[in-house]
Amino acid sequence: MQLERYSLEELAHALRAGEVSARSLMETCFHNYTASEPELNAYKSWDGERMLATASKVDELLQLGYDLGPLMGLPISVKDMFAVPGQPTFAGSSEELGPQWQHPGPLMQAVLGQLALVTGKTHTVEFALGGIGINAHWGTPKNPWSPNEHRVPGGSSSGAGVSLCQGTALLAMGTDTAGSVRIPAAMTGTVGLKPTVGRWPTQQIVPLSASLDTPGILTRTVADAAFSYAAIQSRLQAVPVRTPAPLDCRGLRIGVVENFFWDNAADDLVAVIRDAMRKLEQAGAILVPLQVPGCAELFEIFQQGGLSVAELAAYLASNMPDRLEQLDPVVRSRVEDGGAVSASEYLQRKQRLAQAAEQADRLFGQVDFWLHPTLPITAPAVGELQDLEAYRHYNMLALRNPSMANLMGLCALSLPAGLDHQGLPVALQLTAAANQEVRLLAAGQAVEQVLGTQFRQFYQ
Predict the structure, then answer these.
(1) pLDDT tens for each residue of 428-444
(2) Catalytic residues
(3) What is the pLDDT of residue 216?
(4) Which CATH architecture has domain 3-451?
(5) Rounded distance, CA 168 to CA 166, Å?
(6) Angle at CA of residue 380, ends 375 and 383, nearest 5°
(7) What are the percentages of helix, strand and coil residues in the chain, rounded to 5?
(8) What is the mean pLDDT of residues 325-346?
(9) In the chain, how long is the greatest CA-to-CA distance?
(10) Is the pLDDT of residue 113 over 80?
(11) Is residue 154 pLDDT above 90, yes or no?
Protein backbone atom coordinates (compact mmCIF):
# COMPACT_ATOMS: atom_id res chain seq x y z
CA MET A 1 0.00 0.00 0.00
CA GLN A 2 1.40 3.43 -0.95
CA LEU A 3 0.95 5.30 2.30
CA GLU A 4 2.37 8.51 0.84
CA ARG A 5 -0.76 8.98 -1.27
CA TYR A 6 -3.10 9.35 1.71
CA SER A 7 -3.44 11.95 4.44
CA LEU A 8 -4.02 10.85 8.01
CA GLU A 9 -7.59 12.11 7.83
CA GLU A 10 -8.23 10.10 4.65
CA LEU A 11 -6.80 6.97 6.24
CA ALA A 12 -8.91 7.48 9.37
CA HIS A 13 -12.06 7.69 7.22
CA ALA A 14 -10.99 4.69 5.13
CA LEU A 15 -10.46 2.59 8.28
CA ARG A 16 -13.98 3.33 9.47
CA ALA A 17 -15.47 2.71 6.02
CA GLY A 18 -13.74 -0.66 5.80
CA GLU A 19 -11.81 0.44 2.70
CA VAL A 20 -8.48 -0.21 4.39
CA SER A 21 -7.51 -2.22 7.47
CA ALA A 22 -5.23 -1.38 10.36
CA ARG A 23 -3.55 -4.72 9.71
CA SER A 24 -2.69 -3.72 6.13
CA LEU A 25 -1.29 -0.38 7.33
CA MET A 26 0.89 -2.13 9.87
CA GLU A 27 2.00 -4.75 7.35
CA THR A 28 3.16 -1.95 5.05
CA CYS A 29 5.09 -0.32 7.88
CA PHE A 30 6.65 -3.68 8.77
CA HIS A 31 7.68 -4.23 5.14
CA ASN A 32 9.28 -0.76 5.03
CA TYR A 33 11.10 -1.43 8.29
CA THR A 34 12.54 -4.67 6.92
CA ALA A 35 13.60 -2.90 3.71
CA SER A 36 15.36 0.01 5.42
CA GLU A 37 16.70 -1.12 8.80
CA PRO A 38 19.37 -1.26 10.08
CA GLU A 39 20.69 0.96 7.27
CA LEU A 40 18.69 4.03 8.31
CA ASN A 41 18.86 3.15 12.02
CA ALA A 42 15.72 5.10 12.90
CA TYR A 43 14.68 2.84 15.76
CA LYS A 44 16.15 1.96 19.15
CA SER A 45 13.45 -0.71 19.50
CA TRP A 46 10.86 -2.07 17.06
CA ASP A 47 7.53 -3.51 18.23
CA GLY A 48 6.18 -4.58 14.86
CA GLU A 49 5.13 -8.12 15.73
CA ARG A 50 3.04 -7.01 18.69
CA MET A 51 1.51 -4.18 16.68
CA LEU A 52 0.45 -6.58 13.91
CA ALA A 53 -1.56 -8.51 16.49
CA THR A 54 -2.94 -5.28 17.95
CA ALA A 55 -3.92 -4.06 14.48
CA SER A 56 -6.04 -7.18 13.95
CA LYS A 57 -7.86 -6.45 17.21
CA VAL A 58 -8.39 -2.84 16.11
CA ASP A 59 -9.99 -4.07 12.88
CA GLU A 60 -12.37 -6.27 14.86
CA LEU A 61 -13.38 -3.34 17.07
CA LEU A 62 -13.93 -1.07 14.07
CA GLN A 63 -16.11 -3.70 12.40
CA LEU A 64 -18.21 -3.83 15.58
CA GLY A 65 -18.67 -0.05 15.45
CA TYR A 66 -16.26 0.96 18.23
CA ASP A 67 -14.46 4.23 17.63
CA LEU A 68 -11.92 5.16 20.28
CA GLY A 69 -10.57 8.27 18.61
CA PRO A 70 -9.16 9.67 15.36
CA LEU A 71 -5.74 7.99 15.81
CA MET A 72 -7.27 4.51 16.13
CA GLY A 73 -5.36 2.04 13.96
CA LEU A 74 -2.80 4.59 12.71
CA PRO A 75 0.92 3.66 13.04
CA ILE A 76 3.03 6.13 15.02
CA SER A 77 6.61 6.18 16.25
CA VAL A 78 7.63 7.52 19.66
CA LYS A 79 10.91 9.13 20.66
CA ASP A 80 12.91 7.11 23.18
CA MET A 81 12.19 9.68 25.89
CA PHE A 82 8.52 8.71 26.39
CA ALA A 83 7.41 5.92 28.72
CA VAL A 84 5.49 3.34 26.68
CA PRO A 85 4.15 0.02 28.06
CA GLY A 86 6.20 -2.96 26.98
CA GLN A 87 8.93 -0.85 25.35
CA PRO A 88 12.14 -0.08 27.29
CA THR A 89 13.29 3.53 27.68
CA PHE A 90 16.97 4.39 27.25
CA ALA A 91 16.68 8.15 26.54
CA GLY A 92 19.63 7.68 24.19
CA SER A 93 21.87 6.49 27.03
CA SER A 94 23.92 3.33 27.23
CA GLU A 95 21.59 1.44 29.59
CA GLU A 96 17.85 1.07 30.11
CA LEU A 97 16.45 3.49 32.69
CA GLY A 98 14.30 0.93 34.46
CA PRO A 99 10.76 -0.46 34.56
CA GLN A 100 9.28 2.74 36.00
CA TRP A 101 9.84 4.24 32.55
CA GLN A 102 7.28 1.90 30.98
CA HIS A 103 4.33 3.52 32.76
CA PRO A 104 2.83 6.07 30.33
CA GLY A 105 2.12 9.64 31.31
CA PRO A 106 -1.01 11.61 30.38
CA LEU A 107 0.12 12.43 26.84
CA MET A 108 0.94 8.86 25.88
CA GLN A 109 -2.27 7.73 27.58
CA ALA A 110 -4.12 10.15 25.30
CA VAL A 111 -2.49 8.46 22.29
CA LEU A 112 -2.68 4.87 23.49
CA GLY A 113 -6.27 5.32 24.62
CA GLN A 114 -7.20 5.80 20.98
CA LEU A 115 -5.51 2.50 20.07
CA ALA A 116 -2.87 4.11 17.89
CA LEU A 117 -0.24 1.55 16.88
CA VAL A 118 3.11 2.45 18.48
CA THR A 119 5.53 0.86 16.03
CA GLY A 120 8.57 1.43 18.23
CA LYS A 121 10.95 3.83 19.97
CA THR A 122 13.02 6.09 17.71
CA HIS A 123 16.58 7.12 18.46
CA THR A 124 17.40 10.32 20.31
CA VAL A 125 20.54 12.22 21.23
CA GLU A 126 21.43 11.15 24.77
CA PHE A 127 19.01 12.82 27.18
CA ALA A 128 17.94 15.00 24.23
CA LEU A 129 20.93 17.33 24.67
CA GLY A 130 21.91 18.09 21.08
CA GLY A 131 20.55 19.44 17.83
CA ILE A 132 22.42 17.46 15.18
CA GLY A 133 21.34 13.91 15.99
CA ILE A 134 24.64 12.25 16.93
CA ASN A 135 24.61 9.32 19.38
CA ALA A 136 27.88 7.59 20.22
CA HIS A 137 26.15 4.71 22.02
CA TRP A 138 23.70 3.54 19.36
CA GLY A 139 24.81 5.21 16.15
CA THR A 140 23.39 8.18 14.29
CA PRO A 141 20.32 7.61 12.09
CA LYS A 142 20.96 8.18 8.40
CA ASN A 143 19.16 10.99 6.63
CA PRO A 144 17.39 9.24 3.72
CA TRP A 145 17.65 12.35 1.54
CA SER A 146 21.36 11.58 1.11
CA PRO A 147 21.62 7.97 -0.12
CA ASN A 148 25.33 8.13 -1.00
CA GLU A 149 26.65 9.92 2.08
CA HIS A 150 25.77 9.59 5.75
CA ARG A 151 24.21 12.92 6.66
CA VAL A 152 22.67 13.69 10.01
CA PRO A 153 18.87 13.61 10.41
CA GLY A 154 18.72 16.46 12.94
CA GLY A 155 18.15 16.10 16.65
CA SER A 156 17.49 15.53 19.28
CA SER A 157 14.46 13.58 17.95
CA SER A 158 16.85 12.02 15.48
CA GLY A 159 14.87 8.95 14.42
CA ALA A 160 11.51 10.67 14.26
CA GLY A 161 11.69 12.32 10.83
CA VAL A 162 13.51 9.29 9.43
CA SER A 163 10.65 7.01 10.53
CA LEU A 164 8.22 9.09 8.48
CA CYS A 165 10.45 9.10 5.40
CA GLN A 166 11.01 5.34 5.54
CA GLY A 167 7.25 4.74 5.85
CA THR A 168 7.32 2.93 9.20
CA ALA A 169 5.10 5.53 10.89
CA LEU A 170 2.61 8.18 9.81
CA LEU A 171 3.02 10.36 12.90
CA ALA A 172 6.11 10.74 15.07
CA MET A 173 6.11 11.87 18.70
CA GLY A 174 9.11 13.95 19.74
CA THR A 175 10.19 16.49 22.33
CA ASP A 176 11.37 20.06 21.83
CA THR A 177 13.44 22.05 24.33
CA ALA A 178 15.48 24.15 21.91
CA GLY A 179 14.35 22.90 18.50
CA SER A 180 14.45 19.12 18.87
CA VAL A 181 11.24 18.58 16.88
CA ARG A 182 11.73 21.31 14.30
CA ILE A 183 15.41 20.59 13.52
CA PRO A 184 14.82 16.97 12.41
CA ALA A 185 11.68 18.08 10.60
CA ALA A 186 13.69 20.69 8.69
CA MET A 187 16.47 18.25 7.79
CA THR A 188 14.13 15.45 6.65
CA GLY A 189 11.57 17.43 4.65
CA THR A 190 8.83 16.87 7.20
CA VAL A 191 6.69 19.12 9.40
CA GLY A 192 7.41 19.81 13.07
CA LEU A 193 5.10 21.42 15.62
CA LYS A 194 6.39 22.77 18.93
CA PRO A 195 3.44 23.61 21.17
CA THR A 196 3.65 26.24 23.89
CA VAL A 197 5.26 24.98 27.10
CA GLY A 198 2.48 23.66 29.32
CA ARG A 199 0.06 23.00 26.48
CA TRP A 200 0.84 19.26 26.60
CA PRO A 201 1.86 17.44 29.81
CA THR A 202 5.41 16.19 30.26
CA GLN A 203 4.94 13.57 32.99
CA GLN A 204 6.70 10.28 32.22
CA ILE A 205 8.82 11.88 29.54
CA VAL A 206 12.49 11.82 30.56
CA PRO A 207 13.25 15.47 31.35
CA LEU A 208 15.94 17.66 29.87
CA SER A 209 14.64 21.00 31.13
CA ALA A 210 11.67 21.35 33.47
CA SER A 211 11.41 24.99 32.36
CA LEU A 212 11.50 24.54 28.58
CA ASP A 213 10.56 20.95 27.64
CA THR A 214 7.47 20.35 25.57
CA PRO A 215 6.28 17.29 23.67
CA GLY A 216 5.74 17.87 19.96
CA ILE A 217 4.91 16.07 16.75
CA LEU A 218 6.45 15.45 13.35
CA THR A 219 4.20 14.66 10.40
CA ARG A 220 4.38 14.36 6.64
CA THR A 221 2.33 17.51 6.01
CA VAL A 222 0.86 20.45 7.92
CA ALA A 223 -2.61 19.01 7.26
CA ASP A 224 -1.51 15.82 9.05
CA ALA A 225 -0.14 17.93 11.92
CA ALA A 226 -3.48 19.74 12.26
CA PHE A 227 -5.35 16.42 12.31
CA SER A 228 -2.95 14.90 14.88
CA TYR A 229 -2.96 17.96 17.12
CA ALA A 230 -6.75 17.99 17.25
CA ALA A 231 -6.89 14.24 17.93
CA ILE A 232 -4.49 14.48 20.87
CA GLN A 233 -5.90 17.72 22.24
CA SER A 234 -9.43 16.30 22.18
CA ARG A 235 -8.40 13.44 24.44
CA LEU A 236 -6.41 15.69 26.79
CA GLN A 237 -9.28 18.17 27.15
CA ALA A 238 -11.93 15.41 27.20
CA VAL A 239 -13.98 17.47 24.73
CA PRO A 240 -13.91 17.31 20.91
CA VAL A 241 -11.46 19.66 19.22
CA ARG A 242 -12.03 20.26 15.52
CA THR A 243 -9.13 19.90 13.12
CA PRO A 244 -7.94 23.44 12.33
CA ALA A 245 -9.11 24.43 8.86
CA PRO A 246 -6.74 26.28 6.50
CA LEU A 247 -6.82 30.06 6.62
CA ASP A 248 -6.92 32.12 3.46
CA CYS A 249 -3.42 33.31 2.65
CA ARG A 250 -4.85 36.64 1.51
CA GLY A 251 -4.51 39.19 4.25
CA LEU A 252 -2.25 37.13 6.50
CA ARG A 253 0.15 39.55 8.22
CA ILE A 254 3.45 37.72 8.25
CA GLY A 255 6.37 39.43 9.95
CA VAL A 256 9.57 38.63 8.09
CA VAL A 257 12.20 38.76 10.83
CA GLU A 258 15.15 40.60 9.31
CA ASN A 259 17.69 40.31 12.11
CA PHE A 260 19.61 37.40 13.66
CA PHE A 261 17.94 34.42 11.91
CA TRP A 262 19.63 34.98 8.55
CA ASP A 263 23.18 35.35 9.88
CA ASN A 264 25.63 32.89 8.29
CA ALA A 265 22.83 31.22 6.37
CA ALA A 266 23.83 29.32 3.22
CA ASP A 267 23.23 31.35 0.05
CA ASP A 268 21.08 28.76 -1.72
CA LEU A 269 19.05 28.21 1.45
CA VAL A 270 18.35 31.93 1.62
CA ALA A 271 17.33 31.88 -2.04
CA VAL A 272 14.80 29.11 -1.39
CA ILE A 273 13.24 31.01 1.54
CA ARG A 274 13.13 34.28 -0.43
CA ASP A 275 11.42 32.49 -3.31
CA ALA A 276 8.86 31.07 -0.89
CA MET A 277 8.23 34.56 0.45
CA ARG A 278 7.60 35.87 -3.08
CA LYS A 279 5.06 33.10 -3.67
CA LEU A 280 3.27 33.92 -0.42
CA GLU A 281 3.15 37.61 -1.31
CA GLN A 282 1.77 36.77 -4.75
CA ALA A 283 -0.92 34.69 -3.02
CA GLY A 284 -2.01 37.73 -1.04
CA ALA A 285 -0.04 37.50 2.19
CA ILE A 286 1.12 40.81 3.63
CA LEU A 287 4.84 40.58 4.38
CA VAL A 288 5.93 43.03 7.06
CA PRO A 289 9.62 43.67 7.84
CA LEU A 290 10.16 42.94 11.53
CA GLN A 291 12.95 43.27 14.06
CA VAL A 292 12.89 40.95 17.07
CA PRO A 293 14.96 42.49 19.88
CA GLY A 294 17.18 40.57 22.25
CA CYS A 295 17.90 37.49 20.12
CA ALA A 296 21.69 37.80 20.27
CA GLU A 297 21.63 38.22 24.05
CA LEU A 298 19.34 35.23 24.50
CA PHE A 299 21.53 33.09 22.28
CA GLU A 300 24.59 34.06 24.29
CA ILE A 301 22.78 32.83 27.42
CA PHE A 302 21.82 29.67 25.56
CA GLN A 303 25.41 29.01 24.48
CA GLN A 304 26.45 29.25 28.12
CA GLY A 305 23.98 26.47 28.94
CA GLY A 306 20.83 28.51 29.39
CA LEU A 307 18.43 26.81 31.76
CA SER A 308 18.38 23.38 30.19
CA VAL A 309 21.97 22.25 30.76
CA ALA A 310 21.89 23.24 34.44
CA GLU A 311 18.51 21.55 34.88
CA LEU A 312 19.69 18.34 33.19
CA ALA A 313 22.87 18.29 35.29
CA ALA A 314 20.78 18.69 38.45
CA TYR A 315 18.34 15.98 37.37
CA LEU A 316 21.10 13.48 36.60
CA ALA A 317 22.96 14.24 39.82
CA SER A 318 19.79 13.69 41.86
CA ASN A 319 18.27 10.75 40.00
CA MET A 320 20.98 9.00 37.98
CA PRO A 321 24.38 9.97 39.38
CA ASP A 322 25.95 6.82 37.95
CA ARG A 323 25.14 8.03 34.42
CA LEU A 324 27.38 11.09 34.48
CA GLU A 325 30.59 9.20 33.72
CA GLN A 326 28.86 7.12 31.02
CA LEU A 327 27.58 10.06 28.99
CA ASP A 328 28.29 10.38 25.28
CA PRO A 329 31.48 12.55 25.14
CA VAL A 330 29.80 15.40 23.24
CA VAL A 331 26.89 15.41 25.70
CA ARG A 332 29.22 15.22 28.68
CA SER A 333 31.22 18.19 27.39
CA ARG A 334 28.06 20.34 27.31
CA VAL A 335 26.98 19.20 30.77
CA GLU A 336 30.44 19.96 32.17
CA ASP A 337 30.68 23.32 30.40
CA GLY A 338 27.20 24.61 31.24
CA GLY A 339 26.01 22.63 34.22
CA ALA A 340 27.83 24.46 37.01
CA VAL A 341 25.71 27.61 37.36
CA SER A 342 25.23 29.60 40.56
CA ALA A 343 21.71 30.07 41.92
CA SER A 344 22.05 33.80 41.31
CA GLU A 345 23.04 33.34 37.66
CA TYR A 346 20.28 30.78 37.09
CA LEU A 347 17.60 33.11 38.47
CA GLN A 348 18.95 36.04 36.44
CA ARG A 349 18.65 33.90 33.30
CA LYS A 350 15.07 32.99 34.14
CA GLN A 351 14.22 36.65 34.65
CA ARG A 352 15.77 37.63 31.32
CA LEU A 353 13.81 34.93 29.50
CA ALA A 354 10.58 36.16 31.11
CA GLN A 355 11.35 39.70 29.94
CA ALA A 356 12.05 38.43 26.42
CA ALA A 357 8.69 36.62 26.40
CA GLU A 358 6.90 39.86 27.28
CA GLN A 359 8.74 41.74 24.50
CA ALA A 360 7.94 39.03 21.96
CA ASP A 361 4.27 38.99 22.90
CA ARG A 362 3.96 42.71 22.15
CA LEU A 363 5.28 42.17 18.60
CA PHE A 364 2.22 40.07 17.78
CA GLY A 365 0.17 43.24 17.93
CA GLN A 366 1.87 44.22 14.66
CA VAL A 367 1.75 40.88 12.81
CA ASP A 368 -0.03 37.53 13.03
CA PHE A 369 3.06 35.34 12.67
CA TRP A 370 6.81 35.54 12.26
CA LEU A 371 8.65 33.94 9.34
CA HIS A 372 12.33 33.06 9.10
CA PRO A 373 14.51 30.10 8.08
CA THR A 374 14.04 27.22 10.52
CA LEU A 375 17.79 26.58 10.21
CA PRO A 376 20.63 28.47 8.54
CA ILE A 377 22.05 25.17 7.21
CA THR A 378 20.91 21.94 5.64
CA ALA A 379 21.96 18.52 6.95
CA PRO A 380 25.78 18.23 7.29
CA ALA A 381 27.64 14.99 6.69
CA VAL A 382 28.59 12.90 9.71
CA GLY A 383 32.17 12.98 8.47
CA GLU A 384 32.26 16.74 8.99
CA LEU A 385 31.49 16.34 12.70
CA GLN A 386 34.30 14.09 13.91
CA ASP A 387 36.23 16.92 15.52
CA LEU A 388 34.63 18.19 18.74
CA GLU A 389 34.95 21.83 17.71
CA ALA A 390 33.31 21.11 14.36
CA TYR A 391 30.49 19.31 16.15
CA ARG A 392 29.97 22.26 18.49
CA HIS A 393 29.93 24.68 15.55
CA TYR A 394 27.28 22.80 13.59
CA ASN A 395 25.30 21.91 16.70
CA MET A 396 24.94 25.54 17.71
CA LEU A 397 24.11 26.58 14.16
CA ALA A 398 21.31 24.02 14.11
CA LEU A 399 19.96 25.09 17.50
CA ARG A 400 20.32 28.84 17.06
CA ASN A 401 17.15 29.78 15.16
CA PRO A 402 14.62 27.34 16.60
CA SER A 403 15.76 27.91 20.20
CA MET A 404 14.39 31.45 20.18
CA ALA A 405 10.76 30.27 20.23
CA ASN A 406 11.54 28.11 23.27
CA LEU A 407 13.37 30.87 25.10
CA MET A 408 10.57 33.38 24.36
CA GLY A 409 7.73 31.06 25.34
CA LEU A 410 6.13 30.87 21.87
CA CYS A 411 4.71 28.08 19.71
CA ALA A 412 6.29 27.33 16.34
CA LEU A 413 5.87 25.27 13.18
CA SER A 414 8.59 24.19 10.74
CA LEU A 415 7.51 23.27 7.23
CA PRO A 416 9.36 22.55 3.99
CA ALA A 417 10.08 25.45 1.62
CA GLY A 418 12.10 23.70 -1.11
CA LEU A 419 15.44 22.02 -1.79
CA ASP A 420 18.99 23.34 -1.89
CA HIS A 421 21.50 22.71 -4.70
CA GLN A 422 22.34 19.28 -3.23
CA GLY A 423 18.69 18.26 -3.20
CA LEU A 424 18.47 18.54 0.59
CA PRO A 425 15.37 19.96 2.29
CA VAL A 426 15.15 23.62 3.27
CA ALA A 427 12.52 24.71 5.81
CA LEU A 428 10.90 27.89 7.02
CA GLN A 429 9.47 28.48 10.47
CA LEU A 430 6.20 30.18 11.36
CA THR A 431 6.09 31.39 14.94
CA ALA A 432 2.95 32.43 16.81
CA ALA A 433 2.15 33.87 20.20
CA ALA A 434 1.83 31.55 23.17
CA ASN A 435 -1.15 29.17 23.08
CA GLN A 436 -2.04 30.00 19.47
CA GLU A 437 -1.45 26.47 18.12
CA VAL A 438 -4.82 26.24 16.34
CA ARG A 439 -4.31 29.48 14.43
CA LEU A 440 -0.68 28.56 13.72
CA LEU A 441 -1.71 25.24 12.17
CA ALA A 442 -4.43 26.98 10.17
CA ALA A 443 -1.88 29.44 8.80
CA GLY A 444 0.61 26.67 8.17
CA GLN A 445 -1.91 24.89 5.97
CA ALA A 446 -2.43 28.09 4.00
CA VAL A 447 1.32 28.36 3.45
CA GLU A 448 1.51 24.68 2.51
CA GLN A 449 -1.22 25.13 -0.09
CA VAL A 450 0.86 27.86 -1.72
CA LEU A 451 4.28 26.20 -1.49
CA GLY A 452 3.29 22.55 -1.78
CA THR A 453 5.05 19.83 0.20
CA GLN A 454 8.54 18.38 -0.07
CA PHE A 455 7.78 15.18 1.81
CA ARG A 456 9.14 12.04 0.21
CA GLN A 457 8.64 8.46 1.36
CA PHE A 458 11.72 6.50 0.34
CA TYR A 459 10.28 3.00 0.76
CA GLN A 460 6.98 1.55 -0.43
Answers:
(1) 999 999 999 999 999 99
(2) 79, 156, 180
(3) 98
(4) Alpha-Beta Complex (3.90)
(5) 6
(6) 155
(7) 45, 15, 40
(8) 85
(9) 61
(10) yes
(11) yes
